[in-house]
């Protein structure tokens, strides 16, 4: 079956890692037509908007997109393209599997957990205003609908992937109404799935436990802001954001992305590590039902990491982006 996939190369190192991943995916045997579109700084320069209508139409039509990193200005400039995509397309679930890779320095070489993050509300929505000069108010919104929906996604994912436990992470001891509602919805859905163990942890304790004994976690379910912070913490446990995949999934489509930054300081040098976007493409292929191709790429990637001969600079090697991609292609042959 031939697939049409929206490709968003992104900013900075995005086009380099995207080209490497496209090469690997095509070499693995996927019949694919890529529709390339731009977002963020490049789109703003070309089209006067960070989220062109043609891009949104393409994702809506194709139901799937692969996205490189996109720059988000801090404190000024345009709002986050990532948040815009999630809101516009109602990509309510953020999925972040975190698994240690062979020969990558880590204190937790056996770590294998999944972060599921609600993607559409909470403080991360960016609803804020100046009350009076010197006073800013941000609004935290938690709804029964969104909390129940993300809990259902987490339990269905656990059943599909053979996971045994889900831990809801919250601050309901202080935010008794908002986080309390999130926790209540979680346990209501848990009653429908008695075969999955359900528990919860306060977010500060969860962070401490992640550093001390991360193996106790299987799936972590979090509100939007906590999920953004904790998922990066989890990535740090196994080597950083350059190694972990990300997916934003909704009823109308899914966007699979590299969750690291656009690294403009090394853009154009051909030294970026494409592993994060490659792992995201593996998630994408499984989402499309192309498990055999996904497994082929994953097996080759793990072989390259296990052998340890071809490494990019961020993980202690000297290989360039295209050399790393070539090694994975050769490992599939």
Provide a compact summary of the structure.
It is built from eleven helices and twelve strands. The chain has helices at 14-27, 41-47, 53-62, 81-89, 144-161, 178-190, 203-212, 224-237, 275-287, 291-307, 321-332, and strands spanning 3-8, 32-36, 64-67, 93-99, 112-118, 128-132, 135-138, 165-170, 197-202, 219-222, 245-249, 254-258.
Please supply descriptive tags for the structure shown above:
alpha/beta, globular, single chain, 11 helices, two-stranded antiparallel ribbon, 333 residues, Isopropylmalate Dehydrogenase, 12 strands
Task: Describe the fold and architecture.
The model has no long low-confidence stretch (mean pLDDT 95). The strands form 2 sheets. This protein has a 10-stranded mixed beta sheet with strand order 2-1-3-12-11-4-5-10-8-9, sandwiched between helices. It has a two-stranded antiparallel sheet with strand order 6-7. It is α/β, with parallel strands linked by helices and 333 residues long. Helix 5 (144-161) crosses helix 6. Helix content is 41%, strand content 19%. Strand 11 (245-249) and strand 12 form a beta hairpin. The two termini are 22 Å apart. The chain folds into 2 domains: 1-94 and 240-333, Isopropylmalate Dehydrogenase, CATH 3.40.718; 112-237, Isopropylmalate Dehydrogenase (3-Layer(aba) Sandwich).
